[in-house]
Specification:
0% strand; mainly alpha; disordered N terminus; 79% helix; 25 helices; 570 residues; single chain
Length: 570
């Protein structure tokens, strides 16, 4: 018979066709594209993870990573994650936050409610957005949510940033005690994490807390304790800020000349803001250099400033003109500073916020405003008390109604419990009857065994087969007793009669062998070791050894019923 050779078409013959070539090239390009996309996604995740680790102490490195990232290969979620980390870095290091409304909406959708560190960071960023909008209540609410979540996740750096921001909020609200409390909690965590820059900035919040409480001596001591570390490690702009605060504090402690010398060393020939100029002018006024003071306050008035700076400038200007004896101008300046106070109060909306801001001014306008605010507060209290009374009445009504429902349910529950107890009693009675019947059957089986042996003995009495037949009947009875079915029945009787003793023993010692379980069963039944030797077909000396080993296993265990089990091995 002729064998037909099977031929295979080489791959190079297939790819000769143009259509197949195009198909293979397309498939190859798709595979390469997918692999490249996966690798690009993984690389982006690695870069984002590296960014997150570097945020506390190395912002320059974070910025370098951002510049090197290929955003074209990143998913939308990865881009938002990059925006999150960059914005978080801006909040941590006091840079300007720049998020458009659409990005805020997308980030809120992606990170809100995730119960992870990304959500903590987003809440901190949202608090900064609220601060920029002037909504300090929303800022506090976001920070308190972030605090709770950071504590649950044990995210220490995020928690430290929450405390630092809370201290800054209350510093702005002139609540020194709360400001210092949160700042100290932040510093405790930052020391553990070794974040010197953040520690330095948080210590400045404590300095502000002392200023709020007008404890200028402690404020000066704190700044002097920080001075060496700041001058050695801080960047130039922060050194200028620090020395400016030190100069102001010297003035508050009767060392105005030292403060003026510091201002000269850091600001001569440089631009200054209206706030610093006002403090410098006030310092010159305290040492009676009124011409220099007036020149500086005039310069401060000409610069852009907010309502707080306007109030400061007008108060300092009033004091300078009063010392210069230019009384004719005091009325105009007094009216301007009253307007400044009113504008500041309106801007801050004190009556709508929980922050405690003390405005120290003796003008009649401010006093009238304070009285009006107190009247509104009293009206609010009365309204609140009325609402509380109504709520209390409704609550009592609902409570009594609910209590009646609960009592009704409890009554129904008691009836169900009684029925359940009756069912349990009925079930227990049935179990008791079953166990009793088994014990009765066992009891009768003993008489049947004796009756059978007596009949065999009677029939073979005084014959040559007497001993042989008796031995055979006894052996047969013992074999029947040692069968698996009889053993199982015996175990059921022990469980029913002795509170599931054998079942509990099996649960406490699940890794024993079948022979060990059977030995324990016979011991629980009270059989002697010679009898057990006959039942199991094992030599008596071995039974002694097996019993000793099993007793040792039980004795070494932590089984709850150990003492009960051992009582059968004595």
């Amino acid at each position: 018979m002729e064998m037909t050779e099977k031929r295979y078409t080489p791959i190079y013959n297939i790819v000769r066709y143009p259509l197949m070539q195009c198909g293979l090239i397309a498939i190859l390009m798709c595979v390469v594209g997918m692999l490249a996309g996966c690798e690009g996604s993984r690389e982006a995740d690695r870069q984002l993870a590296a960014m997150e680790k570097l945020i506390p102490n190395h912002p320059d490195s974070v910025w370098k990573i951002i510049e090197e990232m290929d955003t074209n290969r990143m998913s939308d979620a990865q881009k938002l994650h990059m925006d999150l980390l960059y914005s978080y870095m801006a909040v941590v290091h006091g840079n300007s936050l720049n998020l458009d409304d659409q990005t805020i909406i997308e980030c809120d959708r992606l990170f809100r409610g995730k119960f992870n560190t990304d959500e903590v960071k987003w809440l901190i960023i949202k608090s900064d957005v609220s601060k920029l909008k002037g909504d300090y209540i929303a800022q506090i609410e976001s920070l308190k949510d972030a605090e709770f979540l950071a504590m649950q996740l044990d995210s220490k750096f995020d928690l430290a940033m929450v405390y630092q921001n809370l201290s800054s909020v209350y510093k702005r609200g002139y609540n020194g005690m709360v400001c210092k409390y949160y700042a100290e909690k932040a510093i405790e965590l930052l020391k553990e994490l070794n974040c010197p820059k953040q520690i330095r900035e948080t210590k400045m919040n404590i300095v502000s807390a002392y200023a709020i409480k007008e404890d200028y001596k402690t404020m000066l001591d704190s700044l002097l304790a920080m001075k060496d570390e700041v001058m050695a490690n801080a960047h130039d702009s922060y050194k200028v800020f620090f020395l400016d605060q030190l100069a102001r504090t010297y003035g508050m402690n009767g060392q105005t000349e030292k403060g003026i010398a510091i201002w000269h060393s850091i600001y001569d020939g440089k631009e200054m803001n209206s706030n610093t100029l006002a403090h410098w002018a006030d310092a010159y006024c305290r040492i009676n250099k009124l011409d220099s003071a007036y020149m500086l306050i005039t310069q401060a008035n000409s610069l852009p400033h907010n309502s707080s700076d306007e109030q400061l400038c007008r108060n300092v200007e009033y004091g300078i003109l009063e010392k210069m004896g230019r009384k004719s101008e005091l009325a105009r300046i007094d009216s301007l500073r009253k307007v400044a106070v009113i504008n500041k109060v309106k801007e801050e909306k004190l009556e709508e916020r929980s922050l405690i801001i003390n405005v120290k001014n003796e003008s009649a306008t401010v006093k009238a405003w304070l009285e009006a605010a107190k009247a509104r507060t009293r009206a609010t209290y009365f309204l609140f008390a009325a609402i509380l009374s109504i709520i209390a009445a409704i609550s009592i009504f609902l409570y009594l109604r609910k209590r009646n429902q609960i009592l009704k349910l409890e009554h129904e529950n008691d009836l169900l419990k009684i029925r359940s107890l009756q069912d349990n009693l009925f079930e227990s009675d049935n179990k008791h009857k079953i166990v009793s019947s088994k014990i009765t059957e066992l009891f009768h089986s003993r008489f049947k065994l004796l009756d059978s042996l007596a009949a065999s003995y009677f029939e073979s009495k005084e014959t040559g087969q007497e001993q042989k037949r008796i031995y055979s009947d006894v052996k047969s009875s013992l074999n029947n007793f040692s069968s698996d079915a009889s053993t199982q029945e015996l175990e059921n009787i022990v469980n029913g009669y002795n509170d599931n003793l054998m079942l509990r023993f099996r649960e406490d010692f699940p890794k024993l062998s079948v022979a060990q379980y059977r030995l324990a069963l016979y011991l629980f039944c009270g059989f002697s070791l010679p009898s057990i030797s006959i039942f199991t077909g094992t030599e008596l000396k071995n039974i002694y050894v097996y019993k000793s080993r099993l007793k040792g296993v039980i004795n070494k265990s932590d089984a709850p019923g150990k003492e009960e089990y051992l009582s059968y091995f004595s």
